[in-house]
Specification:
3 domains, alpha/beta, single chain, 8 helices, Rossmann fold, 5-stranded mixed sheet
Length: 433
């Protein structure tokens, strides 16, 4: 099954917890604190796998979580860092942050990697908190939480040439003749329901990839027919072969079909029409095709300047007439055509740090149901998660951090009184003036 759009959730590993420990060995003078740091968690990394051509693997597996780092140990031993979680994706995958709409990266090269969720660092052990005034601290940090983010993956087929045209214009038949691809071919519309890829190899050693895109119809850019779900695959093609059925067997006007398809391409992305486009007059082995082609040429000559400059190649995929000339001309155009800078895939980053929407350091509200003051916010919640609640000195350190952020004053201004309950995440304590 061909799948080209999915939404998934990824979670990087948390850092390991730091340890509170002391050395009291017989021959170790000045033993002191000896709690080690926690290890780093695992990053979540996308890596291009050239053997994949669909996002099918993500259809039923949508949650990915890297392993957490190991906890620190006695004798200042650092916990083990977790291995990164490497997820294979096909070439041409665009990764977008679902929450912000930001394009994180475009994976278009073999073995290219992109860090989409960064792991948390390990928490510090108590050896880092020793000071002249507190030579034996019972303070350690929990590991930093790994980043968690919702992502949208969109596959845009990487092909040099795109075949466009109305249903039954002969796209699949042409692809099957000029490449070794075996697309489904039948005498009814919308035989092709997913993009098909094939490689064309010329005698002179040149080759290029061709994508047979599902048949467009008038209104496709607004969701008619198969809609615009496959129009995205045209975006990365350098040359467009626009197939027009010249037989007239279905009572259609070839020129009107030609204008309708170009209109849909323009409405989807007007830059597409700026690329080289070859008009391929198909089914020339049928009786009325030659006459219809002459009428088509006259109509084209009377149309816009852009249309007048487009080359027309009459072919028959059944008798193989005109195919050699078409393939060679297409290869020549590819040799001289490159996507403009604005049409290149989005700039890729080797590492992406998810930044949630900007909020204040903390927010205070009163929960009437539980009769508690609730403190929330990215910064204060992160500080709490990294606080070792099992040791009093760690909790006192957290209290000083809250005071430094101005939470004490904010609670007082909000109306908190001595003895009120204050809640952060799942932890509650008593407010003291």
């Amino acid at each position: 099954m061909f799948v080209d759009q999915v939404k998934i959730n990824v979670k990087a590993g948390n850092g390991g917890n730091g340890m509170v420990a002391f050395r009291r060995e017989k021959y170790v003078p000045n033993g002191g604190p000896a709690g080690g740091d926690g290890g780093r968690g695992g990053n979540v990394i996308f890596k291009v796998d050239s053997g994949m051509n669909t996002l099918m693997d993500f259809r039923y597996h949508r949650k990915f979580k890297a392993k957490n780092g190991g906890n620190g140990a006695n004798k200042s031993m650092t916990g083990r860092s977790a291995d990164d979680l490497v997820i294979p994706v096909p070439e041409g995958t665009t990764v977008t942050n679902t929450d912000t709409g930001e394009v994180i990266g475009d994976l278009v090269k073999p073995d290219q990697e992109l860090v989409v969720a960064k792991a948390g660092r390990g928490g510090r052990g108590n050896i880092h908190f020793a000071s002249p005034t507190n030579p034996a601290p019972e303070i350690a940090e929990n590991g930093e939480p790994g980043q968690e983010v919702s992502l949208s993956l969109e596959l845009k087929v990487l092909a040099d040439v795109g075949l466009v045209g109305f249903p039954s214009a002969g796209k699949s038949t042409l692809l099957s003749v000029i490449t070794s691809a075996k697309p489904k071919i039948a005498g009814y519309h919308f035989t092709t329901l997913v993009p098909n890829l094939g490689m064309v190899r010329l005698d002179d050693g040149r080759d290029f990839a061709v994508a047979d895109l599902p048949g467009l119809v008038e209104g496709a850019s607004n969701g008619v027919g198969l809609g615009f779900q496959f129009l995205r695959h045209v975006e990365r093609t350098r040359v467009i072969l626009h197939l027009v059925d010249m037989s007239g067997l279905e009572g259609r006007d070839p020129f009107e079909d030609y204008l309708a398809i170009n209109k849909e391409l323009e409405q989807y992305d007007e830059r597409i029409l700026k690329r080289p486009q070859i008009i391929v007059a198909t089914k020339m082995d049928l009786p009325d095709s030659a006459d219809n082609l002459q009428i088509f040429k006259q109509q084209l000559a009377e149309h816009s300047d852009a249309d007048k400059t487009r080359e027309i190649f009459p072919i028959s995929s059944v008798t193989h007439t005109g195919l050699t000339e078409l393939v060679r001309r297409t290869a020549d155009l590819l040799d001289t055509t490159k996507l403009s800078d604005m049409e290149q895939p989005a700039e890729t980053t080797k590492e992406y740090a998810y930044q949630p929407a900007e909020t204040s350091d903390f927010h205070i509200e009163y929960d009437k149901e539980y009769e508690s003051w609730v403190i929330s916010g990215d910064k204060i919640e992160k500080l709490f998660k990294m606080t070792d609640t099992e040791h009093d000195q760690s909790m006192l350190r957290f209290a000083r951090q809250m005071h430094g952020m101005g939470i004490d004053d904010a609670l007082r201004k909000a109306g908190a009184k001595d003895g009120d309950t204050v809640t952060i995440l799942d932890f509650s304590f008593t407010y003291v003036e």
